[in-house]
Amino acid sequence: MGLSPLLSKVIYEVIGQINHSGVTILLIEQNVRIALELANRAYVVENGRIVKQGDSKNMLNDQHIREAYLGTESA
């Protein structure tokens, strides 16, 4: 059923604070937008295989990622 939106927001904020303090975090998340906003580097795994990897900010602007996972077209 997942976490409430409020609790999810708090958790993402804490993860961001921990990461900004210099601790490396492995985050496995279905919410692609939030994961890419929190991460420095991203890996796209489909059927157990890494199909794309790179800088998370670049991934946010990648046309395939936007269409397949974010439901939007490139800006």
Most strands sheet: 2 strands, antiparallel
Rg over alpha carbons: 13 Å
Globally, the shape reads globular
User: Can you tell me the residue ranges where pLDDT is under 50 for at least 5 consecutive residues?
Assistant: none
- Portion of residues in beta strands equals 15-25%
Distance between the termini: 33 Å
Count of extended strands: 2
What's the helix count?
Answer: 4
Average per-residue pLDDT, rounded, comes to: 89
Helix/strand order: HHEEHH
Strand order in the sheet with the most strands: 1-2
Helix-residue proportion:
40-55%
Tell me about this structure.
With 75 residues, the protein is an alpha+beta fold. Helices cover 48% and strands 17% of the residues. It contains four helices and two strands. It has a two-stranded antiparallel sheet with strand order 1-2. Strand 1 and strand 2 (49-55) form a beta hairpin. The longest helix has 16 residues, at 5-20. The protein is globular and about 30 Å long. The model has no long low-confidence stretch (mean pLDDT 89).
